[in-house]
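tool_call predict_complex ligand=pyridoxal-5'-phosphate
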Amino acid sequence: MTTSRRVGDSLWSPLAHMPSVLGNRTVIVHGEGAYVTTQDGARLLDATSGLWHANVGHGRAEIADAAARQMKTLETYQSFGFFTNDVALSLADRLASLAPIDEPKVILTSGGSDSVEVAVKLARMHWQLAGRTDKTFVLSRADSYHGLHAFGSSLTGPDFYRDGYGPGTLVPDTARFSSTDAHDIARVIGEIGGNRIAAIITEPVIGSGGIIGPSDGYFEHLEQAARKHDILVIADEVVTGFGRTGSWFATERFGLHPDMTIIAKGVTSGYAPLGGVIISPRVWERFYSGSAAPIYRHGVTYSGHATSCAIAHANLDILEAESLISRAANLEVILVRELDRLRNRDDIREIRSGHGFLAGVAPIDDIPADEVARFARAHGVILRVLRENVIQISPPLIVNEQELTTIVDVIEGALQAHRS
Ligand code: PLP
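tool_result ok
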């Protein structure tokens, strides 16, 4: 096959229809605050924080300096067995002190999907070690997103993430229940049998699955069912952690009491890959005492990567010094108010807001969200299209009120343009 090659054609992008993508990429070359600049010189307001990660905004010199300092001192040293590095230790302590779980331990990883694997494998091992060997099932919500490693692909809600790998799911013993109807949890538990379920994993607010906050009483139901059947609860806070819902962790806001919390993205605001799992005593205790203590045989070369950890420290310093967590809570109110301008339009199907500084705007089906995103991009704003014709809004926590107005103006402009 003869093909003419352009610069960058070798890059096979994630989740992309490559024939459409080639030659049509938006190539970002610079970032500063809430804005990024393309290779063609267009300055765009990043209304999604990239993939939900840029909590403190782009181009923060303090973080770059911290990374350089750390690399000049020690780029990293591995954390397997008896070895580790000083920055991994101090970051784990800092995360433990911020976490909404009492007396936790922290496993550091390389990102969100990696952390999902860590938490879910650990949940299964927990019950094997407890002698409850039938407890192998893990349940998730029908619209959830838990990354795309093998476990994540099997747990993530929409079927298309599981299709194409041959019969069955990549990892067996997974099942899903309704994201909104709390009574469905009992139905699925009834079908499988509570004695066979190791864990339920849930995002406090579903992000990539369409911005779905918990309906009234949803988490109470979920926790009651988990307690009744001895099922571990895993909160996936990859999107919601580190300020997105106006608290350090969304479980605090939504009254969820997880046995494990998964983090990534906002812990470094994307300045380096890093994730983690914050683990309650119920799960970690047996691994920490006695000569016969079991070993959790999971880890990657970059578990506790020193430069990533130094970057996380610098990022947390900014979140604290600039009070960005409470700022996000204030920004949420402004975003809700701005979006209310769209609420009664006949070309809007639904506005999903009020569960943090993130929102979904769903035009009616006749107006493809892709068209709105293209219009916005041409008018200087990056939006992202999620399933079911929903547009994602999740700006960096440093945007100002005027920038939120601009985001909503551009969506309004796209809807008007569609009419004319
Ligand atoms: N969990 C949630 C809720 C996510 O939104 C994501 C990524 O968007 C992941 C897990 C996977 O994280 P990563 O892409 O860092 O592997």
